[in-house]
Fold this sequence. Notes:
mainly beta; 5 strands
Amino acid sequence: MQATVGDRIHVSGTHVADHERDGEILEVRGKNGEPPYVVRWFDTGHEALVFPGPDATIRPASGHHTENPA
Length: 70
């Protein structure tokens, strides 16, 4: 998974009661765009260090959709 500042991250719920979350990547801390990312979640405004799992996808600022490679 690779991202740049300004990209959007979407995390799907892995269980029935889980909520989907969307946020903006504010900072990339890994090498070559790899995680972890500092993300501001749209639903709460909270900023957090995120290590995306297999349920996450990145939507680049340009609008192209990429899946998380397994």
